[in-house]
Amino acid sequence: VQLQASGGGLVQAGGSLRLSCVASGGTFSSYVMGWFRQAPGKEREFVTGINWSGGRVNYADSVKSRFTISRDNAKNTVYLQMNSLKPEDTAVYFCAARCYTRASYEWWGQGTQVTVSS
From its phi and psi, is residue 88 left (phi > 0), alpha (psi between -120 and 50) or beta? Predict the structure, then answer.
């Protein structure tokens, strides 16, 4: 499975960005998809995840009510809509996938940089 993330960029605090991640080489509709991020000098952290149907999602407390994950199985794509961005959201964002039977994410995208200026 290959994952290609895009949509990062530079935005002012309070602004919005939408990240996309396109999957290829597997059965996208059967995967749990997630977004993670890693800020400079910090460990990678979980941001949000979505089950195969989109009916179950979960978020890190730090992004609840500001970020929304969604997926389009017909397009093999998962999205991350980020609103009310804060400077502390600055990080490289990674999409990831796992089979629903696995506890850990198995496949990772290359990351896309999100920079929020104050």
Answer: alpha
- Integer CA distances (angstroms), 11 to 65, 66, 115, 116, in order: 19, 15, 6, 5
User: Are β-strands 9-12 and 112-117 bridged in parallel, bridged antiparallel, or unpaired?
Assistant: parallel
Digits of tens for pLDDT over the chain (118 positions)? 999 999 999 999 999 999 999 999 889 999 999 999 999 999 999 999 999 999 999 999 999 999 999 999 999 999 999 999 999 999 999 999 999 899 899 999 999 999 999 9
- Dihedral sign (CA 56, 7, 88, 41): positive
